[in-house]
Amino acid sequence: MLKRIAIVAVLACLVSACTTSKRPEQESRVALPAKAAEPTAAPKLIDTYTTHIGDKDKYDNNGKRLVEAREIVLQDRRNYYDFNIRDPNDRQDRFFNSKTNRWGDTTTVYDWQFGRGAEYEVQKGNPNLKVQVYDNGHINVKIQGN
User: Fold this and answer.
1) Residues 14 and 21 sit within 8 Å (Cβ to Cβ)
2) How far apart are CA 133 and CA 57, in angstroms?
3) CA 116/CA 72 separation, integer angstroms
4) How far apart are CA 91 and CA 50, in angstroms?
């Protein structure tokens, strides 16, 4: 008799659990906090310029061949400002006109991002570029017209 009561009690618990459980669409969802965290400010564009990468931009001032696209773009700016070596499509800018920004250690800290095919073209070709500099250290380099 005790055995039957125990089985009935277990079955009653199972039936109760099954009939009171929530369906998937009724499940509680994680609530968002009342005040969401402040979004970080979007990076601000501080300078845009266009330039042409010529063969002379691919060598440093000691005649050593440059390999990295970032180095070549920096050399283009050094040639423009420091050595007066300019290609027809080179334009002045407000960021790299600072000697510290073209020669200083800060130039390696920036986050250089090259658009599709731009890095290859800088290394192997002579492209016209559009360069955008943001206040968060991001430098975006694209082939002009892309």
Assistant:
1) no
2) 20
3) 17
4) 6
Q: What Å distances lie between residue 33 and 36, 37, 38, 111, 141, CA to CA? A: 6, 9, 12, 33, 39
Structure tokens at 21: 């459980």
Which is nearest to 124 in space by CA: 63, 69, 71, 61?
69
- What pLDDT, in 10s, does the model give residues 74-130? 999 999 999 999 999 999 999 999 999 998 876 667 899 999 999 999 999 999 999
- Our CA angle for 129, 133, 137, nearest 5°, is 130
Helix, strand or coil for residue 64? coil
